[in-house]
């Protein structure tokens, strides 16, 4: 007791020291639950990674995820209704996720192609890294390219990314080029051999351009250390959006949506926009058909379209 009395007397004689300790305590106390939350989120992600890595896979037996991945092609867009509390990249990344859900996601007003969900993150399906014969049309070689806080611009196998996801909902927006009949009832299994010459050219062009796009952004991300910038860019983009200052600042409102739109433009699917127009794109904009809406939508070039959404993962909204 005498020690604490002496310590209090010392602090009273040194008000600046007392103030510094009070400020330190005020920052340390709320840091405790944040630290505990992050440790728990990281542990859960590692547990999921171990579960996926050690998953028993029976030869010639396909899971639901395998079947869903088979529906995907380069250029498809995948939307995520993420659980911000599961973000293992830190408090800043979780805060950016929460801001995006609060201010960049609209309530369903009948214009969206999906009924439920707050989609504030997205990625684009790109060719994988394998150059083996036949890999161009092998679904197991597909990857998802996305802007992330933990890995920068990441390119991960699509099946693994889907299995690792803890999002409330994951939606696939299949991209169809002119003349293509994806998911047609009378479509043969060997549909790639039944495409017209023009359609095949567009498919090959999409594959080639998205491969270049993938390599360029992975290289630039590593060079610029984008993993350290993503969360702050996301937060600044939302703040600029809610204050209506985004037209005067050269940053995207949603980095993940901006990256996907860049990929669609590079492969010739999306209308070319100036840089500022592209930076104003939100993830929500992919849920509206640009053929019928002029505002808050991603406009594709004539003949290109997003088909009806395919639910890849849907869990409880609680």
Domains, number: 2
Per DSSP, the total helix count is: 9
Order of helices and strands: HHHEHEEEHEEHHHHEE
Give the low-pLDDT segments: none
Assign an overall shape.
Answer: globular
Based on CA atoms alone, the radius of gyration comes out at 23 Å
Strand pairing plus helix content: what structural class? alpha+beta
- What's the total count of β strands? 8
The description of the largest β-sheet is:
6 strands, antiparallel
Spatial order of the strands forming the largest sheet? 4-3-2-1-5-8
- Measured as a percent range, the helix fraction is 40-55%
How far the N terminus sits from the C terminus, by CA atoms, comes to 49 Å
Strand content: 5-15%
Mean pLDDT: 82
Walk me through what this model shows:
The protein is α+β, with helices and mostly antiparallel strands. The longest helix has 39 residues, at 15-53. It has 2 domains: 2-47, no CATH class; 65-314, no CATH class. The chain is built from 9 helices and 8 strands. Helix 4 (91-103) packs parallel to helix 7.
Please provide a brief summary of the model.
The protein is of the alpha+beta class.
Strand-helix topology:
Elements lengths: L1 H12 L1 H39 L10 H7 L6 E5 L9 H13 L17 E7 L14 E7 L3 E6 H7 L4 E5 L1 E2 L20 H28 L5 H13 L12 H12 L8 H5 L25 E2 L3 E5 L4
Antiparallel strand pairs: 1-2, 1-5, 2-3, 3-4, 5-8, 6-7
Helix pairs in contact: 4-7
